[in-house]
Amino acid sequence: MPEFTPDPRLEADSYPITELPLCQLRLMNDARYPWLVLIPRRPGVVEVYDLAEHDQRQLWREATLLGQALKGNLGGDKLNIATLGNLVPQLHVHVILRREGDAAWPGPVWGQGRAEAYDLDALADSRDRILALVEGLDGLEDE
């Protein structure tokens, strides 16, 4: 069985944060938004239905718990959770905290302006905050 590796485009556009029970958690390199990406560590998965049922439940658990923690701890007006994959077919879930008046509000973040790359200090700070959120999550473990 082939090993899991993130799509090269996801690797180029994001930073690894940690491993969750199912997914690799990554931070998109766009400081305009708190924007996380969950990539199930299952090779060859393109659609949600390609995952076993228990992995589908775990994917949703990870996305919703992480999103709830983001919104509750960082503040925001709306949480966007999406799977698109038109350009990157490997299944991945975007978890994006939106704020009224952000660079793309109220539209989607894709294709809106230029990404603002994190500087090293902001990247380290964001990584530390996200890791603290993950450590504080209850119910993240696979049932």
From TrEMBL:
This is Diadenosine tetraphosphate (Ap4A) hydrolase and other HIT family hydrolase. PROSITE patterns: HIT_2 (PS51084). Signal peptide: none annotated. Gene3D superfamilies: HIT-like (3.30.428.10). The lineage of its organism: Bacteria, Pseudomonadati, Pseudomonadota, Gammaproteobacteria, Oceanospirillales. GO terms for molecular function: hydrolase activity. Transmembrane segments: none annotated. InterPro entries: HIT-like (IPR011146), HIT-like_sf (IPR036265), HIT_Hint (IPR026026). It holds the Pfam family HIT. Keywords: Hydrolase. The keyword Hydrolase applies. The keyword Hydrolase applies. Residues 36-105 form the HIT domain.
